[in-house]
């Protein structure tokens, strides 16, 4: 196993899948010759050429239509939407066309495309370059949503997304790009949550940057007599509620920590699912999410806005 | 299926062969017209559900373009897509059963009138969002560039004011994609005359990007077929996207709820004189000496075929409500 940063893991997954299957193409704004504005994809253009890795005009609608149409006609496109905040521009092709095609066509064909996007707050980008898009797409049947938290999962799950027969939204948190971790050449399995820390007193479920905050909180809590189990959701749709339910059966307490507005978020969906199917096992169940407000720009405001380890510890101890 | 080159060559070998080709195209147009008449009747009987958009009056466009496509080519059509589907060879009974929501429908009652997909007949899909055809065809063109195929996007003139139009035409030209943009200008974006909401001339927009654009009489099957053949040939030969503005007129309302009160008085009557079926009948008689009896026999055979189609579709079962859709394809 090698150690890579998150962006290197993403690039390696793209590289290996471009190598593995010549139907795979990759395009987006500034991704080819410049290598990506977050420096995630350098070298791919030089290695695979402009037929398979290319820069696009700033035309998100055309890009998404191209991803959909080329997938239906035999390619396996990977498209980068530079900031997740631009995803509303591609919603028609993703939601109305790609996600429904398998159903509408009566299973004549599925749409194997991947949309990679850099998401999330903490980068001082302000309200319109810091959003978490998961909730916007969470209620779209036919669209998978993958949210890796580690370099290892970023690589393995991106490889899986590219090989998947269905459209996949692949969310890369901007503040994870520089974290390092072990990666290998495995193709991951979409749709499986993972217990990343075992514990017996409380289950904490989270994703992406917040997951790391929760792991730090769990360490602090262990010194205060609370033994927390931590679960990485990894795939928002399809959601692996079985793994969470199994944990709650053991701990009887569930906290879900989401970076994203409280109302209509995926944390609420997990609370609902666990309540429906595991009510008899629940002693306590709650969530921490970001306020129902735009992400602030000013650093102290943005830091206070996000669910950090201290807030998680304080919330747990106050119950 | 013969390639586009084969079809064109066959049509050109002799006047007799050409007459046979155009007689076949006339039959296809007649089939579409009468199919839509049946849809309208079935709609009034509450057997066609929801809404539906008829192609009556525009038949030469889809039939002319489809006649020059080969087996490598693919088409995206609009929610006014029954004509394109039938022009491509989609089974009329399966199409009508789809409109009736039956399990024997081309998409087993899942798509309804506006979202029909039939990949076996090269129909990538009908798109119920304006501009969806352009977006999809741009991507299809990217894929077909590897195989020598051409993607065709049908769309109305109203689409030319959408973001998809500006973005995708530029995108297709930048990468020289083999896409034919087939703009069917029927004069109205839903209920609004297109001139009231459109700046400049439509064909000037592709031309500004360096995309060749022909503005043609879309009710003349000879004109449509010849123009489409040349455009598809250029696209196939690596000359990039092509554009046709095909002037036509719909003889019916935008959708079921539209009586067409916005039409200029007399306009419909004028266009009826240029009915693509009338133009075709006249042309067949004048160019090749095809008799009225022969044409009437064609019409009668269409009636017989569609009567069977209607009866079969009406007798077909509905899907079982208990069937659960699979959200994802495995693997």
Task: Write a concise keyword list for the protein shown above.
heterodimer; A: alpha/beta; Rossmann fold; 2 domains; seven-stranded mixed sheet; 14 strands; B: 331 residues; alpha/beta; six-stranded parallel sheet; disordered N terminus
How would you describe the overall organization of this protein?
The complex is a heterodimer of chains A (319) and B (331). With 319 residues, chain A is an alpha/beta fold. Chain A has 11 helices and 14 strands. In chain A, helix 7 links the parallel strand 10 and strand 11 (228-232). Chain A is globular, with a radius of gyration of 19 Å. Chain B has helices spanning 4-13, 15-44, 59-66, 82-88, 92-99, 132-144, 163-174, 204-208, 221-236, 267-273, 276-288, 292-315, and strands at residues 74-78, 123-127, 151-156, 179-185, 188-189, 192-193, 213-217, 242-247. In chain B, strand 7, helix 9 and strand 8 (242-247) form a beta-alpha-beta unit. The model of chain B is unreliable at 1-12 (pLDDT under 50). In chain B, helix 2 (15-44) packs antiparallel against helix 11, helix 3 runs parallel beside helix 4 and helix 5 (92-99) crosses helix 12 (292-315). Chain B has 331 residues and is of the alpha/beta class. At the A-B interface, helix 3 and helix 4 of A face strand 2, helix 6 and helix 7 of B.
Query: Largest chain interface and its two residue counts?
Result: A-B, 44 and 47 residues
Number of strands of chain A: 14
Strand order of the largest sheet of chain B: 2-1-3-4-8-7
Beta content of chain B: 5-15%
Radius of gyration of chain A: 19 Å
Instruction: Label the CATH architecture of the largest domain in chain A.
Output: 3-Layer(aba) Sandwich
Would you state the CATH class of the largest domain in chain A? Answer: Alpha Beta
Question: With helices defined by DSSP (H or I, 4 residues minimum), what is the helix count of chain B?
Answer: 12
User: What is the typical, i.e. mean, pLDDT of chain B?
Assistant: 93
- What summary fits the major beta sheet of chain B? 6 strands, parallel
Low-confidence residue ranges of chain B:
1-12
CATH class label of chain B: Alpha Beta
């Amino acid at each position: 196993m090698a150690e890579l940063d998150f962006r290197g893991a993403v690039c390696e997954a793209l590289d290996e899948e471009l190598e593995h299957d010549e139907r795979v193409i990759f395009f987006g704004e500034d991704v080819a010759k410049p290598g990506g504005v977050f420096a995630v994809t350098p070298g791919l253009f030089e290695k695979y050429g402009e037929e398979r890795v290319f820069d696009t005009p700033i035309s998100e609608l055309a890009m998404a239509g191209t991803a959909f149409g080329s997938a239906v006609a035999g390619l396996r496109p990977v498209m980068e939407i530079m900031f997740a905040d631009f995803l509303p521009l591609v919603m028609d092709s993703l939601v109305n066309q790609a996600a429904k095609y398998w159903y509408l066509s009566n299973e004549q064909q599925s749409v194997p495309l991947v949309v990679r996007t850099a998401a999330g707050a903490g980068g001082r980008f302000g309200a319109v370059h810091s959003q978490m898009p998961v909730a916007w797409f969470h209620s779209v049947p036919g669209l998978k949503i993958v949210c890796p938290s580690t370099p290892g999962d970023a690589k393995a799950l991106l490889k899986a997304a590219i090989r998947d027969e269905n459209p996949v939204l692949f969310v890369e948190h901007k503040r994870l790009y520089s974290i390092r971790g072990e990666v290998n050449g495995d193709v991951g399995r979409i749709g499986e949550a993972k217990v990343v820390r075992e514990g017996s007193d409380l289950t904490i479920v989270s994703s992406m940057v917040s997951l790391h905050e929760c792991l730090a909180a769990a360490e602090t809590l262990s010194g205060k007599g609370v033994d927390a189990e931590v679960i990485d959701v990894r795939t928002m749709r399809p959601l692996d509620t079985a793994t969470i339910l199994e944990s709650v059966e053991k701990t009887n307490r569930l906290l879900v920590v989401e970076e994203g507005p409280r109302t209509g978020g995926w944390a609420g969906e997990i609370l609902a699912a666990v309540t429906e199917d595991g009510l008899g096992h629940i002693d306590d169940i709650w969530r921490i999410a970001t306020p129902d407000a735009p992400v602030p720009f000013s650093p102290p405001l943005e830091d206070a806005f996000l669910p950090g380890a201290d807030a998680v510890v304080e919330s747990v101890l106050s119950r | 299926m013969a390639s586009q080159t084969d079809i064109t060559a066959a049509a050109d070998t002799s006047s007799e062969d050409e007459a046979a080709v155009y007689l076949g195209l006339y039959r296809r147009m007649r089939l579409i017209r009468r199919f839509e008449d049946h849809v309208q009747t079935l709609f009034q009987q509450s057997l066609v559900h929801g809404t539906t958009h008829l192609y009556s009056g525009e038949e030469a466009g889809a039939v002319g373009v489809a006649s020059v496509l080969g087996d490598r080519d693919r088409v995206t059509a609009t929610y006014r897509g029954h004509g394109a589907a039938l022009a491509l060879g989609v089974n009329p009974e399966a199409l009508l059963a789809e409109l009736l929501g039956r399990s024997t429908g081309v998409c087993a009652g899942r798509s309804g009138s506006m979202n029909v997909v039939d990949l076996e007949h090269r129909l990538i899909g009908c798109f119920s969002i304006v501009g969806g055809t352009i977006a999809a065809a741009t991507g299809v063109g990217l894929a077909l560039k590897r195989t020598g195929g051409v993607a065709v996007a049908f769309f109305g003139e109203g689409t030319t004011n959408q973001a998809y139009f500006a973005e995708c035409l530029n995108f297709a030209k930048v990468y020289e994609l083999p896409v034919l943009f087939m703009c069917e200008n029927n004069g109205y974006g839903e209920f609004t005359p297109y001139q009231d909401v459109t700046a400049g001339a439509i064909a000037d927009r592709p031309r500004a990007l360096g995309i060749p654009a022909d503005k043609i009489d879309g009710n003349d099957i000879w004109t449509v077929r010849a123009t489409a053949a040349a455009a598809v040939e250029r696209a196939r030969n690596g000359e990039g996207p092509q554009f046709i503005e095909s002037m036509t007129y719909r003889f019916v309302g935008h959708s079921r709820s539209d009586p067409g009160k916005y039409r200029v008085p007399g306009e419909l009557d004028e266009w009826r004189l240029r009915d693509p079926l009338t133009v075709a009948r006249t042309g067949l008689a004048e160019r090749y000496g095809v008799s009225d009896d022969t044409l009437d026999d064609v019409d009668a055979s269409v009636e017989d075929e569609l009567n069977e189609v209607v009866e079969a579709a009406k007798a077909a079962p509905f899907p079982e409500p208990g069937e659960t859709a699979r959200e994802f394809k495995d693997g």
